[in-house]
């Protein structure tokens, strides 16, 4: 497909702000999304392990990680919306074509996600009563949940890949010249690339376990040292073996790139993520002591390594769509909209910043307190400010709406 046709498919309304900024935010929010996805998969994987292992520590850990999985599903979904907005804004000709070609899968995405989440809750409700170390009931439900979550992820993967092959769209839409408007397409699945992102769940969740060992060490009555050390050891193995596996899968991904960008695997873009992953694996060789605050460093390093992966992944997309197909993403017509841009950043920084800081402060302190946690004056004030910021946001929303309506 020639560049002019691709460009003609762009939104005639143009962009409300510079494409470079949308691209940057897309990369950043994708890194956060995939980090939450990886934690979700790793935590629910450990819940599956806990459902079948005879080891009482393993059973207990599985149930604890089920709580992490429940929360990270919702975090992954909420943060997933952000890269969705950015990718469809700057790469709309590609993203929407992929969505139309695979329309049935796009619609099934939500339904499958709902069933996956319900299955997770079914397992949770069947097992929250009684002894945390007792054998699990309805173990099949958590297995079904993990499998369906992977199906959901594979749909996102296929959409992301289909958009990279404009030269194949016609063949997929009209195989042998006969139009197939069913939207059944599930094309361009790349096993190494998909497995790479999924396998990152191992080191990410491993680092989480090492952090958890330090976090709960202040509550020895509830979390005995033997249990926390079991979690720490498992975390270390997952981090070490996981980074090795991820690097191997990354090599497989680069070795099986489409011919049109086969050289990308030997470019400078692969080095920063590789170094990030090696650093994470190296950290697992000598894990911090249970009482060392350095226990959280592994998570930070993996978050940064994930961001480096996201940057290189974007460079790969750029090399294909701009380099090979001539799509001028940075020449996207601009129709500057300062109000929505300022509102976006202010919402992100002020409303999001205050509310998230408040919630994280409460959750962090509550988890490390024996008995009932009562927030101090600073956290309390933060809560009041968060509610105030949300109220001001709602007021400005209606005020601007009425103002525009009156014009
Ligand atoms: C809960 C299960 C989910 C899993 C396992 C999952 C997994 C993934 C994976 C593996 C990718 C990378 C695909 C690739 O580059 O090959 C991805 C990308 C993406 N995901 Fe998710 N995802 C999930 C849910 C969601 C949800 C609910 C949303 C949106 C609301 C979402 C939005 C996105 C977007 C927009 C991308 C592509 C971003 C881009 O190309 O810039 N995901 N996801």
From TrEMBL:
The keyword Membrane applies. It comes from the Bacteria. Keywords: Membrane, Transmembrane, Transmembrane helix. The chain crosses the membrane at residues 22-52, 73-91, 103-125, 137-159, 194-216, 237-255, 261-281, 293-311, 338-364, 385-406. This is Uncharacterized protein. It comes from Roseospira navarrensis.
């Amino acid at each position: 497909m020639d560049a002019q046709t691709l460009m003609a498919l762009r939104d005639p309304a143009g962009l409300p702000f510079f494409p470079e900024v949308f691209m940057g935010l897309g990369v950043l929010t994708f890194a956060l999304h995939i980090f939450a996805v990886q934690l979700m998969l790793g935590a629910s994987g450990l819940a599956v392990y806990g459902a079948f292992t005879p080891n009482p520590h393993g059973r207990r850990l599985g149930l604890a990680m089920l709580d992490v999985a429940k929360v990270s599903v919702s975090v992954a979904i909420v943060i997933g919306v952000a890269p969705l907005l950015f990718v469809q804004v700057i790469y709309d000709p590609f993203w929407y074509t992929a969505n139309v070609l695979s329309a049935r899968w796009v619609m099934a995405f939500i339904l499958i996600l709902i069933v996956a989440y319900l299955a997770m809750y079914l397992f949770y409700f069947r097992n929250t009563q009684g002894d945390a170390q007792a054998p699990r009931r309805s173990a099949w439900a958590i297995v079904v949940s993990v499998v369906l979550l992977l199906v959901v992820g594979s749909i996102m993967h296929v959409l992301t890949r289909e958009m990279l092959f404009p030269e194949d769209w016609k063949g997929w839409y009209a195989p042998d010249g006969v139009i197939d408007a069913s939207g059944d397409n599930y094309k361009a699945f790349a096993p190494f690339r998909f497995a790479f992102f999924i396998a990152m769940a191992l080191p990410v969740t491993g680092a989480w376990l090492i952090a958890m060992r330090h976090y709960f060490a202040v509550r020895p009555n509830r979390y005995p040292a033997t249990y926390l050390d079991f979690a720490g050891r498992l975390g270390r193995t997952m981090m070490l073996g996981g980074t090795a596996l991820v690097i191997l899968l990354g090599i497989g991904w680069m070795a099986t790139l489409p011919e049109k960008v086969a050289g990308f695997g030997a470019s400078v873009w692969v080095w920063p993520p590789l170094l990030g992953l090696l650093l994470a694996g190296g950290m697992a060789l000598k894990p911090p002591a249970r009482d060392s605050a350095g226990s959280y460093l592994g998570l930070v390093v993996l978050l940064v390594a994930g961001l480096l992966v996201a940057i290189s992944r974007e460079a790969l997309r750029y090399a294909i769509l701009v380099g090979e197909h001539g799509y001028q993403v940075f020449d996207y017509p601009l129709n500057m909209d300062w109000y929505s841009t300022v509102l976006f950043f202010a919402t992100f920084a002020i409303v999001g910043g205050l509310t998230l800081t408040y919630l994280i402060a409460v959750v962090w302190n509550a988890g490390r307190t024996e008995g009932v946690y009562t927030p101090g004056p600073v956290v309390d004030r933060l809560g009041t400010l968060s509610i105030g910021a949300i109220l001001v946001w709602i007021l400005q929303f209606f005020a601007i709406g009425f103002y525009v309506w009156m014009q």
